[in-house]
Write a structure and sequence with these properties.
elongated; 12 helices; five-stranded antiparallel sheet
């Protein structure tokens, strides 16, 4: 299992390269370069900037890939770091240095901010970081290492959520994500989604011009969809409605109506703790028994009438003779 982190680039390019190449941290100098070497990395990156006349502003991007203690050798960790640089940063020079000064081995990737192919600046976004994490997980699987399987992709975990997951506790935001996913599957638009969430899960929804907000039944405040992750924004949910097959509304409405009636009945409780639903079932059964009795009586009366009619008919025939 490897953890990917993006580090703020506060130092100069020269200073950060000097830091990651520190002999005390790398020991055997486990350092490599992609489209450069460990020796000429600084000059190569600066030359690329000069060629494309992009010397100012951000100079580099800094990524750390950390492994759990004892899971990998320094050689394997370094090899995975090189593969990650090749898969994640095509067209950019990358310096890869593996540090072994702590219990957990970790790779430092220093990526040039300017592409040597077309001069484009690399933009580090949340989506690009998620994509890099997916690539790192894929490499770990290929090498037989463990990977944390998250219940939802593109999840935006807060610090509190991360701590809960580490303790093996499911965050309440995971419940919201699941509820919304189920609602999207069973509805065709935002108004239907709002009704579905309220009816099935007690979740309140605010539909705004550019945002969606949801309130967990156990919480007092609304949570914006983007706080749950990129998949739960208004834009992404509306895209999902367009892509997925339409839900049959007639059958869906009938099913919802029946469920709603059932819920209303079962929520009520009499003074003796017996659910109104069970009382109504008893009443229904008693009514059925009464109806059966009435039907039996009516049937007996019909038989008597038929017998009497038959007797009268025979008497009339006797008189005619």
């Amino acid at each position: 299992m490897a953890i990917i982190k993006r580090i703020a680039s506060n130092s100069s390019l020269k200073a950060i390269i000097k830091y990651v190449k520190d002999i005390e941290k790398t020991n055997d100098k486990i350092i490599s370069g992609k489209d450069c070497t460990s020796i000429n990395a600084l000059n190569k990156m600066n030359c690329t900037k000069k060629v494309w006349d992009k010397i100012g502003k951000r100079q580099y991007h800094h990524i750390i890939q950390s492994f759990p203690p004892g899971e990998v050798s320094k050689e394997l960790a370094h090899s995975i770091g090189i593969e990650l640089a090749e898969k994640g940063f095509s067209g950019y020079e990358v310096l890869i240095a593996t540090h072994i000064d702590r219990d957990h081995l970790h790779n430092h990737l220093i990526i040039n901010s300017v592409s040597f192919i077309d001069g484009r600046k690399y933009i580090g976004t949340r989506d690009s970081l998620v994509s890099l994490k997916d690539k790192s997980d894929g490499l770990c699987r290929e090498h037989g290492l463990s990977v944390i399987e998250k219940p939802f992709k593109k999840v935006r975990d807060s610090t509190a959520e991360k701590k809960l997951r580490q303790r093996g506790i499911r965050p309440w935001k995971d419940d919201l994500r699941y509820y919304i996913n189920e609602a999207v599957k069973n509805t065709n638009n935002l108004p239907e989604l709002k009704k579905y969430l309220k009816f099935h899960y007690g979740v309140d929804t605010k539909i705004q011009s550019s945002n969606l907000s949801f309130k967990h039944p156990d919480k007092q405040k609304f949570c914006r969809g983007k706080k749950l992750g990129t998949l739960w924004t208004r834009e992404e949910i509306e895209k999902a409605f367009i892509i997925k097959p339409k839900v049959g509304l007639k059958n869906n409405k009938t099913r919802l109506k029946k469920q709603k009636m059932s819920l209303k009945i079962n929520k009520k409780v009499d003074y003796f703790g017996k659910s109104i639903g069970s009382i109504e079932r008893d009443i229904s059964w008693n009514n059925k028994k009464e109806k059966m009795k009435r039907d039996k009586l009516i049937e007996n009366e019909k038989k008597k009438d038929e017998e009497m009619s038959g007797n009268d008919l025979e008497d009339n025939r006797g008189l005619e003779r």
